[in-house]
Amino acid sequence: VLIIDEVSMLSAETLDNVDTMCRGIRFNQRPFGGLQVVLVGDLFQLPPVPDKDRPNHVPGFVFESKVWEKLAPTYCYLSEQHRQDDREFTDALTDIRYGEGESARAFFESRITAVEPKGSVLLYCHNFAVDNTNERELAKLPGEPTIYKMRQRGHPALVDSLKQGCGSPEWLQIKVGAQVMFTQ
Questions:
Q1: Which of 63, 69, 139, 142 has the highest local Cβ count within 10 Å?
Q2: What is d(CA 168, CA 63) in angstroms, rounded to the nearest whole number?
Q3: Could you report how far apart the first and last alpha carbons of the chain are, in Å?
């Protein structure tokens, strides 16, 4: 069984390449060399990731690949929402997903306020904006910051690759009273 998660992020070309590779390795000309394939993802959610080495290339969606029609996938839809219990909000998001955003406009416009509610979550498009806000809020707190330096070990090329890919700073400053989010 071949399981591909976040399949919407793959381009048509990448999916076709995986198919070609599987057929070659397995000496079998059926799609993906006869492997059972489970494609997981939300085709409304994330577009294919463009190739940074081909700046003018527009990647096609996986369902535009050559293998898609031959694969003849069976679609399974998840219909229950477990992450959000605000029905009006989920209905508005569903409308947007299906290209009916105008019907959701009034709902979202009703939530616009002139004053930022205390403790609200702020969303930014760029890391530098996040960093600026974090630095500004940290400076408001009394006391000296505690500074932590990133530690790393392993093969230098792998360490460098991971550091570039994760976007984490090499130094972390925090103070007592700072609001910090952690995941486990």
A1: 63
A2: 34
A3: 29
Paired tokens of 163:
């550091």
The CA distance from 89 to 146, in Å, is: 40
Amino acid at 82: H
User: Shortest CA distance to 16 belongs to which of 74, 64, 75, 73?
Assistant: 64
Could you tell me the two tokens for 119?
A: 């403790």
Rounded to two decimals, the pTM is 0.56
Which 3 state secondary structure label does DSSP give 61? strand
- What are the DSSP E strand ranges found in 26-145? 37-39
Segment holding 14, helix H or strand E: helix 12-26
**164 CB-near residues (< 8 Å, 6+ apart):** none
Structure tokens at 72: 């003849």
Per residue in 41-85, pLDDT (tens digit) is 988 877 787 777 887 877 889 999 999 999 989 999 887 878 788
CB 32 within 8 A of CB 2: yes
Q: How far apart are CA 140 and CA 137, in angstroms?
A: 5
Asked if 44 and 96 count as a contact pair (C-beta separation under 8 A), the reply is: no
